[in-house]
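pasting for ref
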Amino acid sequence: MLNLILFGPPAAGKGTQAKRLVAERNLIQLSTGDMLRAARASESELGKKVAGIMDRGDLVSDEIVIALIEEQIDANPDAKGFIFDGFPRTVAQAKALDVALSARGQKVDKVIRLCVDDTALMSRITKRFEEEGRKDDNPESFKIRLGNYNKQTAPLLPYYESQGKLSEVDGMAEIEAVSDSINRVLGTEIEAKPAKKKGFFARLFS
């Protein structure tokens, strides 16, 4: 069992690396955004609660997000582990995740931070925006997103570092080099084909 948290700002390639880990290591990626949308669509009791909160424009509580994560862990007992994407974002959430995993005899095993140069990342986004005109690459909006990410992540790094779980890799390297660095951190003991997911989230995460 390997439970992994990947930290990386927007456009740092975190999604690409997560997909590789899913394919190569039999891990399941749990994206909080995807889980909330799937819960809403499911019309389960928890899903109806999520829908009401989202319709009001309120923030979904940590308790509900943890409940969704627990549901997915319990629905996939054969998984070799999970990649937590978009959670935790605060120390309080990190502690709640620790409690949820501990109750199932599990823990966060590794936390990998993709280190990037903010200036170089901004230049990359600006160039892509000028060449492709993608709205989500708007440099001014991206600058805000990047700043928010850095503020959110900063307190979490010492939390996991104090537990000896934090490793950092060069996120500005080529995709293959980043993947190699991550594999060196994780080791090669659980490489396998992806497991099939169960439960009503299966189609969304496959």
